[in-house]
Fold this sequence. Notes:
The chain has helices at about 5-10, 20-35, 55-60, 70-85, 120-130, 165-175; strands spanning about 45, 65-70, 90-95, 105-115, 135-145, 175-190, 195-205. It has about 210 residues and is of the alpha/beta class. It has one domain: Rossmann fold (3-Layer(aba) Sandwich), CATH 3.40.50. The chain is globular, with a radius of gyration of 16 Å. The mean pLDDT is about 90.
Amino acid sequence: MIHSSNHFDERARTWDDDPVKHARALAVAEGIRGQVPLSPQMHALEYGCGTGLLGFALRPHLGRLTLADSSDGMLAVAREKIAHARVTNMRTLTLDLAVDPVPDERYDLICSLLTFHHVEDVADVLRKLFVLLASPGYLCVADLDLEDGSFHGPWFSGHKGFDRTELGSMAERAGFRNVRFNTVLHVQKDESAGQSSFPLFLMVAEK
């Protein structure tokens, strides 16, 4: 990951205090439900889960769900939420595919929300996610369209969003098929000095 895990560890305790983050997760979950035939037989992985906001939104429609992240702080909060809700079909996993081996488990659905712009080698991670996915299976990636750098600000060293055509081609080269995009939300940052409306896309790809 481009961001250090420490950056997210420090923000984990207050991450869920922001209602905008909850709204984003719900919008993406609805987008996934509209594109993917979810079922209680599915085992899903949320990659770069943070505190698991997207995973919790999808949980009622899935059989099992693994929340994976490289931040111990975020995963600690996710485990607390799982325990508090007395959920029995969710677990956490420490995973950063930039450095860790691909786990042996295979998943029917892999999803991520605003994770890919933190990934240095997107093509490499897409290839590894293809391996992690069962066949048939679905990959659902929600992230930003190309933006002017205002979303994070000048300190950010990751991707300033993505060109949909380029990302789709990258997914196809990784082995995915039937790759399609739609816009699920516009994120507003009115305090931004530059761009203030940021389209959030959902890429759905199949194996």
